[in-house]
Amino acid sequence: MRFFRFFLIVFVLMMVACSGTAVSTPTLTSEPTTVAVAQPTNPLTAQLTDTAVSATEPPPATATTKPTSTNTAVPTDTPIPQTDTETSEATETAVSANTATPAPAADDGGEEATAVPPTTAAPPPSTTGVEQPPYEASACSDKYPCNDDRAAWEARIRVPAGFTDTYFAQVPGAPTSMTFGPDGMLYVAIQTGTIYRLDSAGNVFAYVSGFNFPTGIAFRPGTSDLYVSDRINNAAVGGESRISIVQGGAIRQIIGGLPCCYASMHAANGIAFGADGWGYVGVGGRADHGEILVGDNAGQMNELHPYEASILRFSPDGSVVENYARGFRNPYDIAWDGNGQLWATDNEPDFGPVEELHRVIPGGQHGYPWFDCDVCFPAPPDVQVIPPAWTFTPHASPTGITSYLSNLFPGYYNSLFLTLWSAFPGAQKVVRMAPNATSATNFATGFASPIDVTVGPDGSLYVADWATGIIFKISYIG
To answer: So what's the pLDDT on residue 425?
Structure first.
């Protein structure tokens, strides 16, 4: 039980603000706060409380083909009215308890863990580029503009000279993932299970509902098949996630038995299709650093599930699932660059090491469950851990990532854009990584909780803000 000595769970109910208030950005800090509005749970790092009754671990997952077509897509002819997040489905998840996770004391007396030294040192966190604007009170919030105040939000977001930001739309809920479809429309999944599609004018239409916390959506190239990752059993112990396809208005599960759900966004997450025509999905670990969570052996090293903490490769019909790379604590999103290189964002353990961006190496071991802390586990001597390509400030929560393969932004081709989701200093922004992750700069700042980013057919960058439901569009104007 030593693991649990280091984690203090503090539950604070978020105060309900007036209509139109931006949901306060999540934090994970043990320091006293002076913010008047309590912070909601950080879905990326807060441990779930609905653990399974049995303390035994689930059996190894097997790729399963389960045609379970029960849900129907519901396209509408009338756009959904633009509503604020306070009165939308996001309220159901945003008004929740905050989990504070203090770092363990260095002199606690625990066993010394041996860290595997990286072959090369990771670059330091970036602090250059567009500055983060200060918080400013409005009639709705002590930090942000009202959610429906388009002009105020456009004034708050900072972008480089030559670029402009636009309040493109607002979805009725907390977005988790988005992608453009073959019809040129933007598809946005929200936390409570609905996927919306947005036209070029920002009008919002319901597309399909019935998912359980979807966190990855992607169209298979050359088709109208939408692949979605969500959960079957949303429990910290014994949880299960899956991948389904939306085809012809129906949801059909193709892969089940995937690991889930140490925290509410640690499951099968971001999906991307490779040049080989196969799908790839990032799957989080079942614990903070590979430990058993409950029972008499809690805190001891657990046997790894064959698919946890991995990037998986799967055939389009889901009949074949295999490991592509291992060692990612929570790879929230993945993206291919113009050179055919796969990249993954990764959220690191709760004790506070730097967050990571990985150049995914096929067959490689990228770290999990071996970390440097007094309750962590040493790596076997024959394991070579691949260091990250870049690191970010602790608890910054890197989430969405996309490769820029358009020519609209001069000099930006093959850059990576990624979102830093949390409210910790050094986050709440979009970061631009130069090709091959040779440098990082702050590209867009001022968000509440930016969770995903994608490139549109027009070459503009689209950013989804989890806390407000706002979709921002960043364009180049010269």
So the answer is: 87
pTM of the shown model: 0.80
What pLDDT does 22 receive?
A: 55
Residue 55 corresponds to which tokens in the numbers above?
């303390």
Q: How many domains does the chain have?
A: 1
- Please provide residue 93's backbone torsions phi and psi, each rounded to the nearest 5 degrees: -105, -30
Domain, as residue range, for 264:
1-51+58-108+116-478
Please state, in angstroms and rounded to a whole number, the distance separating the CA atoms of residues 357 and 322: 22
**Adjacent-strand bridge partners of 404:** 415
Amino acid 322: pLDDT: 98
CA 336 – CA 378 distance, rounded (Å): 31
Which residues are paired to 206 by β-bridges? 196
Q: How many CA atoms lie within 13 A of 197 on its CB side?
A: 18
Residue 20: exposed, middle, or buried by beta-carbon count in 10 A (0-12, 13-18, 19+)?
A: buried
Per-run averaged pLDDT (10 residues), the chain, 478 residues = 36 35 39 30 39 30 37 50 39 28 27 34 62 96 97 98 98 98 98 98 97 97 98 94 94 97 92 98 97 96 97 98 98 98 97 96 97 94 96 96 97 98 94 95 98 98 98 97
The single residue listed with the structure tokens 């007396």 is 109
- Characterise 248 by phi-psi region: left (phi > 0), alpha (psi -120 to 50), beta (else): left
Sheet holding 342-346, edge to edge: 334-336, 342-346, 355-359, 390-392
Reduce the secondary structure of the chain to three states and give it as a string. CHHHHHCCCCCCCCCCCCCCCCCCCCCCCCCCCCCCCCCCCCCCCCECCCCCCCCCCCCCCCCCCCCCCCCECCCCCCCECCCCHHHCCCHHHHCCCCCCCCCCCCCCCCCCCCCCCCCCCCCCCCCCECCCCCCCCCCCCCCCCCCCCHHHHHHHCECCCCEEEEEEEECCCCEEEEEECCCCCEEEEECCCCEEEECCCCCEEEEECCCCCCCEEEECCCCCCEEEEEEEECCCCCEEEEEEEEECCEEEEEEEEEEECCECCCCEEEEEECCCCCEEEEECCCCCCCECCCCCCCCCECCCCCCCCEEEEECCCCCCEEEEEECCCCCCCEEECCCCCEEEEECCCCCCCCEEEEECCCCCECCCCCCCCCCCCCCCCCCCECCCCEEECCCCCEEEEEEECCCCCCCCCCEEEEEECCCCCCCCEEEEECHHHCCEEEEEECCCCEEEEEECCCCCEEEEECCCCEEEEEEECC
Q: Check: CB of residue 400 under 8 Å from CB of residue 177.
A: yes
Identity of the amino acid at 58: P
Q: State CA 469 to chain mean position distance.
A: 15
pLDDT of residue 273: 98
Specify the CATH number for the domain of residue 342.
2.120.10.30
